Structures are given as structure tokens and as C-alpha cells.
Amino acid sequence: MMKAICVFNQKGGVGKTTTVVNLSAALGLKKKKVLVVDLDPQGNSSSGFGIDKNTLEHNVYDLFINDTLPISELIYKTESKNVDIIPSNTALSGVEVELINIADRESILKKALRDCKDYDYIIMDCPPSLGILSINALTASDSVLIPIQSEYYALEGVSQLVETINLVKKSLNKKLEVEGVLISMFDGRNNLSLEVVEEVKKYFKNKVFKTIIPRNVRLAEAPSYGESIFDYDEKSKGAIAYEKLAKEIIKNNK
Ligand code: ADP
Ligand code: MG
User: Domain 3-252 belongs to what architecture?
Assistant: First the structure.
């Protein structure tokens, strides 16, 4: 059974893209067939997989604007085992405006992904906003994975985030669930990080993943080589954590 998960938090810099790339790579190494959908005009998950996003013939923009093109034309292979991607680039930034007068504009992605049933997981990278691209991702997903950075303002904006999820659940996608809340960039030497974990657990209760992603410089370096952490440094703390997260997700979905 295919499972579609969107990685969503309207805050930037919380670890969405890092999670999309490395969770997908980890699932691929566990013999799961994964399709990454990059929905951020910045295209960071595309470049994180070493995709030269500006020279490709097609990208996710076509999915929203050019509905005569079969989705198979938009899918590219990555160097990561079992991971394909629908890449993005800055062309996508105009989409919010271009779709204003389109009927059912919240469900375009959902309809397009109906033809992608051969994958075990579809993992979507959302832009840092609550606009039409994120709404499309939430509408097309079975569940949402929420990364939260362990820092002072961790829970700022969270009520808005939860409200958006509930709104989509009510009106567009009744089956939408929370896959889990992922604490990212955790620094165990820092009391604040420990406090944030407690605070997040108080708020989200049993929805918080057991796996916590540590702050690890190797995770920040890998994208500039266009590699997942497993190709860049498979023994790093970051690689170990994302492998554990993949295991936890597979187990939760059995
Ligand atoms: P988002 O997609 O939510 O904007 P990113 O995944 O791009 O967030 O992460 C923001 C920045 O933090 C990036 O430079 C990334 O390399 C870095 N980063 C993300 N996770 C970690 C981590 N666990 N340890 C160290 N750096 C990280
Ligand atoms: Mg990002």
C-alpha cells in the first residue's frame, strides 16, 4: 500500500528539506520505493539529491499548470537507491497567483499522484508558507510529518499550523493524520534543548517520534555535494538518526 507523507511546517529553517532528503534515502535503502515531490520553489530537496534543477525539461510546475503532460514525464531518478523525484525550481513561485481562478485548485496534486501507486512512499517537501502549495500537499497526503527545531521559539506558530491541518482535514481530506512530530537539530549539551523536548511532548503528547534528530554538521554539509547523508557520511550521527526514523515510520505503518 502506498503511503503519502508531507513534511510540513510553515516556519523556514526547521529541518523540512533535510528530513525529506534523508528520510527518503533511508527508506530507499530499506528497499522501499520512494517518490519525493519537491513543492518548494527554492528546490532545495532537488539540489540536495544532486539534481541540476534548472536544466531539466520538466518539473513540478508542469504538474500544476500543464495537465496534459503525463506525470511519468516529470519523474527523474536520483543517485539514491530506490528514490525518484519530481523536482522543483523557481518557476513554481508564480503558481500561487496563477491558480487563483482555477476550480479545485487544492486537489491538483492529489489527482496527479493517483497515477503513482507503484511507490511505497511519496514524501513531499513543503515551502515555508500556508499557501496553495502546502494546501495541495496536505490534501494529497495520508499523513503529515511536522519537524520542530529545538530552539527557544520552537512552539511559536504551532497553533496556526495545527489549525491549518484541521481545516484541511475538515474540508478537503478527511483521512489526514499526523504521522508524527519530529524534534530536529537537538543539542544534548544545551539545557534549552531538553526543555523544548518536554514542551513539545506536553503539546503533542504521544504524537512525538521517539527518534530525535541531533544537530550534526555532516547533515548541513551533505547538500552541497548533492548527496544524502548515507552517501556523504553513513557513519555520522545524522545518518544513524535518520535510519532510526525510517525504521520507526515503517513500524508505525505495519
Ligand atoms: P527547512 O526546509 O525547514 O527550511 P532545512 O532542512 O533546509 O529546513 O534546514 C535549515 C538549515 O539547517 C539548513 O542549512 C540545513 O543544512 C541545516 N540543518 C537541518 N537539520 C540539521 C541538523 N540536524 N544538524 C545541523 N544542521 C541542520
Ligand atoms: Mg526547505
Answer: 3-Layer(aba) Sandwich (3.40)
